[in-house]
Design brief:
Layout: H1 3-10, E1 28-29, E2 35-39, E3 48-54, E4 64-66, E5 72-80, E6 87-95, E7 102-104, E8 110-117, H2 119-126, E9 137-139, H3 147-155, H4 159-176, H5 183-193, H6 200-206, H7 211-222, H8 226-242, H9 250-256, H10 262-273, H11 277-287
Antiparallel strand pairs: 1-2, 2-3, 3-8, 4-7, 5-6, 5-8, 6-9
Helix pairs in contact: 1-4, 3-4, 5-7, 5-8
Length: about 290
């Protein structure tokens, strides 16, 4: 099977890359219209969950509250001159997991194009563990040849064209690198599929692993305790769902996302993010929020 055919299989569910589909992509957007992203499908979803773009190098973006999450993004950060007639700087950066909530502002001439990697895929692609990147943005040299992405980024290609190159890079990397298929990786995938609502004891039993061994293996592979990882996943899924509503029904949300009740939901989200769900919702909708 040739590379182009292999890529089409990997990226099934997305338009055909040989038909100039960079302009055909259907981007989702956050309420403020500052982030846009595409959820990955097919085999690529085994490695990452989305390609996203923040800013356009010309508009003034709001501050972003980075809430706790256990994601690592391989990002191209471009800085344009004030008139947006040329690129002044291109950085290849790993945006690490967030443990401590913080505000971030990229600046009005900055633009970020990134792929959001699953934790078990970070070391095979970037060469660093998520645990090494917590609360950090680190300049990196990916393990696989990154020039096919760097060149269009430096040439001033559109963000969508750079995103396409990043998708192609991801597909080629997946075909070339041996990704782990441990029980811990399977458990992490199941936690994501369940929107963070999987029962950890049930997972250990299903995988036929003693609970203590399961927790130890999960922390070694993913870098975080399974229950804490599930809480992070649930928080981000919760926020994205809330974005879809003008007036979220918090009581119904608590039930949909497996909290005991609304009070439990408020307590858990406040412990993770430092503020409750209603305040997070208002921040994302009116004055800046978190990356999708």
């Amino acid at each position: 099977m040739g590379y182009s055919d292999s890529f089409e299989n990997l990226a099934r569910g997305l338009p055909n890359p040989r038909r100039g589909w960079a302009g055909q992509l259907k981007w989702k957007a956050d309420p403020l219209g500052e982030y846009r992203w595409i959820d990955l499908d097919g085999l690529l979803s085994k490695v990452a969950d989305a390609i996203w773009i923040y800013g356009d190098g010309g508009r003034t973006n709001s501050r972003q509250l980075l809430v706790p999450h256990w994601k690592t993004c391989l990002a191209i950060i471009r800085k344009w001159d004030p008139e947006k007639t040329g690129i002044t700087e291109v950085q290849i950066v790993a945006l690490g997991p967030v443990k401590t909530p913080r505000w971030n502002h990229a600046g009005e001439t900055s633009e970020i194009i990134a792929v959001r990697l699953h934790p078990e895929a970070v070391e095979p692609i970037i060469g660093l563990r998520p645990l090494d990147l917590v609360d950090q943005d680190v300049m990196v040299q990916p393990r696989f040849d990154f020039d096919p992405v760097r060149r269009p980024a430096e040439s001033g290609a559109t963000a969508e064209q750079v995103a396409l190159a990043l998708i192609q890079y991801l597909a080629k990397s997946r075909a070339a690198i041996q990704f782990p298929h441990s029980k811990a990786s399977l458990a992490a995938a199941f936690i994501r599929q369940s929107q963070g609502q999987a029962r950890i004891s049930h997972l250990a039993k299903t995988l036929d692993v003693p609970m203590r061994s399961f927790r130890r293996a999960f922390e070694q592979n993913v870098g975080l305790a399974p229950k804490h990882y599930a809480r992070n996943v649930r928080l981000m899924k919760f926020l994205l769902r809330a974005d879809e509503f003008e007036r979220p029904n918090w009581s119904a949300f608590a039930q949909d996302f497996g909290y005991f009740d609304q009070a439990h939901m408020i307590q858990d989200i406040t412990l993770l993010a430092g503020v409750g769900p209603a305040q997070l919702y208002r921040s994302r909708r009116y004055s800046g929020g978190t990356a999708p």
